[in-house]
Amino acid sequence: MTEVPGPEMLAAALKHADRGWRVFPCVERTKRPCDAVGFFEHGCKSATKSPFWIKKYWGRWPTANPAVATGADSALWVLDIDVKNGVDGFDTLGVLESLFGPVPTTLGQRTPTGGAQRFFVWPEGREVRNRNGKKLGPGLDVRGDGGYIMVPPSIHPERLDGPRYRWDVDPETQPAVPAPDWLLRYVIGDPEDLDWLRQQVDGRALPEWLAKRLKTAVPVDTPPVAAPHPRALPSDGIHPYARKAFDDEVMKVRAAPPGQRNETLNESAFVLGGLWAAACCPTPWSNSICTPRFSPGQGCRRTNGIATPRRWCGR
């Protein structure tokens, strides 16, 4: 069923602005900023916290996707974890956590492609710039000064039937927190930051993309670093993101009305598949979830709207 945008777009935009975030409209079902000569012409540079102008913008474009400009004026930056085109940002983040420490629980949202975005408080006295996977590692991007992100209840441009962007936890319950020192140093990457990071991994085997980021030599025969390291996970081996995501999707499937259960199950499996592929939970636990309908180590994925087996674990 095709998602139909309505008055919830304006309501959400006003709520985001009330949190102190600069908001602006994007063309319905896209990530492209709206544009009108003499009215709204400069995309995220024209983002605002003013309820007056937000109502004006959505009065003209009532079905527009809400977007938030990142940076000092919104007091936040965002770590974007992509899972698409054969690249899994959760694997990359797992390597970093195994070397430097876990990323704390913070405000986050799940994207319709199975990825995630983690919101962090803007650091005082430092500048976070936009970065992409070529700098940070496969599947990791950063939205900082001059950047922007789509926020709930935006409709993803590649999925007209939904699901929409949605929060992991309501922002009123879980606000953004400061990033750990190592992560801030990693994404900023000033010379003194890279020097500090190199000291933390001195003598450790590094994958090529990380050696490149830290500007250090990597032996030709150096094996890739296993991810994630146990110290990045709770004692039961289940990443908190995976546990929370699974609980949320179970409730979503249980609450689905008759006639929508298969589609809801497919969507939930699509969202959770990325977490199993990223090894965010132990194989025995994930196998127990997948049986008896599927054989051990398998889940399901969407293929033309039909649930089919997909290898999730035991990689």
Tally of helical segments: 10
Main β-sheet: number of strands, strand sense, barrel status?
Answer: 5 strands, antiparallel
Oligomer: single chain
Rg calc: 20 Å
Compute the average pLDDT.
81
If strands are numbered along the chain, what order do they take across the biggest sheet? 8-3-7-6-10
State the helicity in percent bands.
25-40%
Distance between the termini: 34 Å
Unreliably modeled segments: 226-233, 291-315
Gross morphology is globular
The class by helix and strand makeup works out as alpha+beta
Topology pattern, helix = H, strand = E: HEHEEEEHEEHEEEHHHHHHEE
Tally of extended strands? 12
Strand content: 15-25%
Would you write up a description of this structure?
- Helix content is 33%, strand content 16%.
- It is built from ten helices and twelve strands.
- Helix 1 (8-18) packs antiparallel against helix 2, helix 5 crosses helix 6 (191-200) and helix 8 runs antiparallel to helix 9 (261-277).
- The radius of gyration is 20 Å and the shape is globular.
